[in-house]
Design a protein that fits this description.
By secondary structure, this protein is of the alpha/beta class. It is built from eight helices and five strands. β3, α4 and β4 form a beta-alpha-beta unit.
């Protein structure tokens, strides 16, 4: 059983056409998803996303009103709350390219349940991968900063500073990133270097 089958997603649906918005919400609801917000006005989408904290947003393109749809996508993506799927009436390569540059995680060109289910699965998987990558980059930055403190404090090179972190992590049974965070938190308390 996939994660999508185990738990419903909290979905924000945005479309300038109210009829199409309701149809999109109905299809998502029929898939077992929970519709937590419906928005038409771009300026209100970001506020709705902040308030309801959806797992995913479905943004519809209606009658090729690309600027409106791109504005809706931009409002949601700028908040960084959830992944966005663009929902189109048919193929529109220029819009898809612009939406991809705007930050969508997937797109679908029909309201067929299987197509939407597939787009949901792709978007959620890509979003999880993005979060994992951001976490890895953040951990790496913490370790690099801690190495810098050790290099300055003990007049050692990069490799020696990493060895110090790794040895401390092994002896304490903690992860290197945890040792690095502890070092960075206590560093201001150490005062000036005496070397």
């Amino acid at each position: 059983m996939s994660p999508l089958e185990q738990q419903s997603l909290r979905v924000l649906v945005a479309n300038e056409d109210r009829t199409r918005l309701e149809r999109l919400a109905e299809v998502a609801k029929d898939l077992g998803e929970e519709i937590v917000a419906r928005e038409v006005v771009p300026a209100e989408v970001a506020e709705a996303a902040r308030q309801v904290q959806p797992d995913i947003a479905l943004v519809g393109l209606h009658d090729h009103h690309t600027e409106h749809a791109l504005d809706l996508i931009g409002q949601i993506v700028s908040e960084g709350i959830c992944p966005v799927i663009a929902v189109l009436d048919g193929e529109d390569p220029k819009f898809i390219d612009a939406a991809a540059q705007g930050g969508i995680f997937a797109y679908v060109t029909s309201l067929e349940p299987d197509a939407l289910r597939g787009a949901l699965a792709v978007a959620m998987q890509r979003y999880r991968q993005t979060l994992a990558l951001e976490g890895a980059i953040g951990r790496r930055a913490v370790i690099e900063r801690a190495k810098g403190v050790l290099m300055e404090r003990h007049s050692v090179d990069d490799a020696a500073a990493f060895e110090m972190l790794r040895d401390n992590a092994r002896h304490s049974g903690r992860k290197i990133v945890d040792v690095s965070e502890a070092l960075l938190e206590s560093h201001p308390l150490l005062g000036e270097s005496r070397s």
